[in-house]
């Protein structure tokens, strides 16, 4: 009886330590990213994401989230008329996604990681406007801008200025390192990294019914995971 009591007390003492060693099964987090286009400034963007997932192990987790991204816009689209160009105002998207995240050294305070996201973009409508080449100035007599008829430019102002934007499947890859907070690494993680984003886009507006392009950007990303 005495031995059974000792074993029972020993089991009770082990329970807290066993619980402390359990892997946290779920995670939630948020991050902010800034993307810069390699060639065109219209690819520049910033984004905010919320996500949550299931931890398969200390290293690997899967989940889903929602991203909001706003793009800078474009300023050099040809209009079909000399010295006149089209300006595409900033446009934005909500992008639901699924993700995978892998920590290489989960037991260390600083943990290198890699993650990947795959989702779809739903863009909000935007608008366009027209601009004139600054070198095409009005002549002393007025009426002509070195080959540009001002009445023609006035006609452009009366056209449809709505901008239709359609998204498509997009993907992003991130690499970086996480800093564990709290004792025994039981707190959250600060995540510092770089992400690469590939987003196909289709524009619809006057004289450009189906202009397709791909927004590629790369930039810093910082976030926090509970």
Helix and strand pattern: HEEEEEEEEEEEHEEEE
Which CATH C-level class is it?
A: Mainly Beta
Query: How many strands appear in the DSSP assignment?
Result: 15
- Overall geometry: elongated
Classify the beta-strand content into a percent band: over 45%
Helix content: 10-25%
Largest sheet: 8 strands, antiparallel, barrel
CATH architecture annotation = Beta Barrel
Plain-language structure description:
With 226 residues, this protein is mainly β. The protein has a single domain, classed as Porin (Beta Barrel), CATH 2.40.160. 12% of the residues lie in helices and 59% in strands. It has 2 helices and 15 strands. The strands form 2 sheets. The protein has an 8-stranded antiparallel beta barrel with strand order 1-2-3-6-7-13-14-15. A two-stranded antiparallel sheet has the order 10-11. A hairpin with a 5-residue loop joins β4 (74-78) and β5 (84-88). The chain is elongated and about 75 Å long. The model is unreliable at 1-22 (pLDDT under 50).
